[in-house]
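Q: Got a minute? One more chain.
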Amino acid sequence: MSELVFRGRENEIEELLKFVDEEAGGTFVVNGRPGIGKSRLLQELAKRLEPLDHWVHFFEIPEETELTYLFPLWAEDIRSGRRFFFTGKAQKWQAFIKATPTIGGYLDALTQGPPQPPHFIFSEVLNRVAKALKKKRRCVLLLDPDKLISYDKDANFLKYVFKNLKPGMKVILAQRISDRLSHDSAFLALPNVRTFSDNLEKLSDDQVHDIIVTTAAEQKLALSADTIERMVERIDGWPFAAELYLRWAAMCLEKGKPELLEQIPPDLQLVMQDLYEDCHGPCRAIVDWLGASRTPLSLADLIALMGKDNGQEIDEAFSQSVVRRLIKNVQGPSPRYELFHDGVKAYVEQRLLDRNDLKRMLGGLGKFQLTQWREGNEEAKALSLAHTAGYLLEAGDKRAFIDAVGAQFETKYNRSMFFLCREEMEQALAWAKELELEKKTISFFLGNLGLVYRNLGELDKAAQYHEQALAIDREIGDRQGEAQQLGNLGLVYRYLGELDKATRHHEQALAIDREIGDRLGEAADLGNLGLVYRNLGELDKAAQHHEQALIIDREIGDRQGEAQDLGNLGLVYRNLGELDKAAQYHEQALVIHRELGVRQGEAQNLGNLGLVYAQQGDKEKALAHAREGLAIAERIGAPPLIEQIKGIIEWIEKR
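A: Always. Here it is, folded:
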């Protein structure tokens, strides 16, 4: 069934069109309860914008998916035009992007360098698009209507993007009234953020009557005046309810039972029950899988989940009206499907729970997503990263959960998702012990939990986990693992201020790495020893170790390691009072960090250069570098670095 005729929101459409027409970049937040018509409002806005020659993109947030996983995909989608609301303009958009090489070049550089904060990447891409826009043209992002933004972190990431929008860039975001941003008075008061004077409210009975009459005529549904009046009464101003009752009416007429229209169900639960019970065989299976899934599924996904032997039956089922009444095609680069409203999804999920089918299906989805992580495209991998472990945890599939957490740990850790890593790794470790898995697997989880706890600032716990991993690696004769754990323990003890212990552990790690020929490990050990010696005040020794690490990193081509070594040498020579040398090392480190796109390293070296220039007596140059470093630190959202550079600026200003 096609969508409802649009009625009753003309004032809101007019206000949104005026907002888009304004040159300044900004965000419009549309607030309202689920089912009130936010999605439909934005779809209608897109249609009104189409003849105005603006670029209109439509981004969705799948259920329970943190934005950390989606920002890099959205950045690529902006480049490719895959999220265009009107796909016919995609070729023109691609020509526009091709003529704006800073966008493609920026994204290409990021894929070759170390990971960057995902929200920062997306914001930078939007800013580069905005700079290339012609004066009267706008780039409009419709950001998924009616998906709950419930995570504080997600809300903060979005606020960062919204605060930095340049002229010509417009974001229109639909929010439930329970969402984080709907209650953020400071955010809503920003000069570039707008909202309606009130939340979207229910439609009037006259508006609902008009929608039903016009839509029924378009769909060739023969509804009597009495039936329409009873439907209006049941719908009570809710657009979602109007669509559901019309789908139910279409089912009754198609089955040749118009008499059922005289007994209109008194509530939506009964309507959903009738629609669901009308599905059988492959049709029911499709609806069930879409009900269990947290993300839209393609035809290929459903065939993989339901069995390749059923491919033809599944394909045929999609053409049947009993399925089409319960699903919708999701806006995007390729056909994907979900149940047409959250209320229907909640109903189907409860039915699966009642039949004891939900856990089995969640387990199937988890294993499918793990396959996507290993074999799928970038979008499939991102959604797999977001949902695989959650599916398998809910399903209680212990072995598959352990495999998934282990496979995805490095990516999540590199994205600084430490709290999530802690939860998943703790559970995986407990189940690995329960299942009596091989000792190397236990050591893997113990050692990586040590890394997580160190980043969370729980140093005593980090040391305990690394000690346990070290004991196992020694027991099974894993020399490389032993060296890694010794090095990790050295880092923890340095942070704890136990410098003698740190030195012993790093020296032991260095001896092993040299014995087994691990050059990368050797360079890391030398660099770590240099940091310890600097803390001990043994600056000549510190410089020697950093210089040895630098030689190795240059030999093996580790550019990031080289930049770290140069920066560390800069710190040592500043402490030695050799300011010209210190400046040279920090400047070399800065060049490499910029080349690699390591924004945190760039900010750190700018701050350190500020200190050096201040000590050389050039206060103006010192403040310029430190303030540039602070701006970058604030832009990427690095609180400890922000405070550190603020301290540097304060120190310089007092000189």
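A: The chain has a mean pLDDT of 89.
Q: Perfect, thanks.
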